Prior knowledge:
The chain has helices spanning 35-44, 75-88, 110-117, 119-124, 154-157, 181-184, 190-196, 199-203, 216-228, 252-267, 290-293, 295-301, 328-339, 343-353, 360-369, 382-387, 396-407; strands at 2-6, 9-13, 20-23, 62-67, 96-101, 126-129, 138-143, 149-153, 161-167, 170-171, 175-176, 230-238, 244-250, 268-271, 275-280, 308-317, 373-377, 391-393, 412-416, 423-426. By secondary structure, the chain is an alpha/beta fold. The protein folds into two domains: 2-26 and 272-426, 2-enoyl-CoA Hydratase, Chain A, domain 1 (Alpha-Beta Complex); 35-266, Rossmann fold.
Amino acid sequence: MYSIPYGHSTLEFDLLPDMRGAVVVSKTVPPIADVERAIDGALEAPIGAPPLEALVDSGSRVCIVFTDVTRPCPDHLLVPALLQRLARAGVRDENITLLCGIGMHRPSTLAEKVEKLGADLVGRYRVIDSEPQNDSALVDLGTTDDGIPVSVHRAAVEADLLVATGLVEPHQYAGYSGGRKTVAIGAAGEALIAATHGPAMVDHPGARLGRIDDNPFHRAVTEAARRAGLRFILNVVLDDGQQVVKVASGEPEAAFHELVRFARSIYEAPIPRQYDVAIGGVGFPKDANLYQASRAASYLFFAPSPVVRPGGYLIIPAQCQEGAGEGVGERRFLAAMRDAPTVRAVLEHARRHGYPPGQQRAFVMAKVLEQVKVVVVGSEHPDVVSACKMIPAETMEIALNLAVDDLGPGLDVLVVPHALLTLPIVQTEECGSRL
Length: 435
């Protein structure tokens, strides 16, 4: 019996009798028992920077950019710890802005702000969302050396001190998320998000999961965060159960690289070969919509080597109660996938004409679907799954039988319970297909 996250619960299933199964998970490390104490310790000893209190005075204007509801970052612990330090330095409440970096996702609701920060903080401080499509809310910061246009929310740029929380984990393009990305994408304008998620960037071999060196996406967001004035971060690494296993604070690049070193040690896991079928778990909050849940498929495909052979199957259990998703980016993803006659047409149109932010998920998934089939199990909106050229299946048994009907019996199956927090590394160069 196998178990995989599904919404707030788990989905248990057996493989078919003639299947050979294997499970890969990230390395187990003890979760931090007293997270608040660990956060305080990280703030007492920041990496490459003076303590937060030394960066402000009583008249300073401070902006803290925190993650939106699509990220399970424990901002309810991180943001209060930062605010306590600022209060000790005499920074007045009215000079502090808490900015939710939504990127191109939908605006956060009041309930989600309360969930992220707590009712006391939401009532006490100015809490706002970034506005990527509102030019009057953005500051133009020029272009990077690679020609990426940089614009960031005015509240962040005009602060005397810009701070960000974040979650360091494998990321499709950035290599690892967190650090600079909460500001450089979360609080950015649409032009910056469009350039960093465009077809040239997504097609670039350096913009890969787990890769920082020679990664143009990483280079762009690092420069954008610098231009915005990001001076201090407080970030965490989580385990498969979304428990904190590492905390660090300090100068954005130094603290980020320290956390990446730790993250690699737990998330990257060797597997002996490619498989016929891979089953990737997502769970809450990422499986609330297809835009986010489909990351499990693209992460397994865009690992340093694809986890499944060409022609294989990626099976993703996901509730998708929000359908494709409710934000601008999510709606663009749905439209691009639904309106194109074929997967190849999605790719050809994108490479010829480009696309707006959010639609990069369609481009990425088209690249996946060009090589393998993707089955989404247990979606509350199977029509949306079909419209996005993936295969809906009511149960795991149905999904597995689809693979057998197509590929034949005796399939090798890899189960990745936490596909967004496990980076399988194929140990052989065998990339052919038995199919």
